[in-house]
C-alpha cells in the first residue's frame, strides 16, 4: 500500500508510551498499529473494537435495582422521583 500522506495527532504521552510498548510486543511499531486501525475502520465502516471503560453511571440494563436507587440518591433523585438538586441537567 502506497503511503503518500501524513497524519499528525496529539495525545497523552503516557498513552503513547504504553501503546508503543503494546505494539512492540506484537512486533509492530505504533505507525503500523494506527494504519491497521484506520484500514479496518474503512473496510468495515465501524470501530474495530467495542469501546469499554469505567463509568460513574450505572448500567441500567444489568445493575441491581438497589445499586441504581443508591446512585439516584447520590445524585439527588429520591425514590419518589423528585429531584433534590444534585443531578446534572445538561
List keywords for this structure.
mainly alpha; 2 domains; 0% strand; 90 residues; 43% helix
Poorly predicted ranges: none
So what's the overall shape? elongated
Helix and strand content put the structural class at mainly alpha
Alpha carbon gyration radius: 21 Å
CA distance, first residue to last residue: 45 Å
Please indicate the count of domains: 2
Instruction: Return the string of H and E elements.
Output: HHH
Task: Write up what this structure looks like.
This protein is mainly alpha-helical. The protein has 2 domains: 13-44, no CATH class; 54-90, no CATH class. The protein has 3 helices and no strands. The chain has helices at 13-25, 30-44, 65-75. The longest helix is centred in the middle third of the chain and has 15 residues, at 30-44. The mean pLDDT is 78.
Describe the SSE topology.
Blueprint: H1 13-25, H2 30-44, H3 65-75
Short description:
The chain has helices spanning 13-25, 30-44, 65-75. It is an all-alpha fold and 90 residues long.
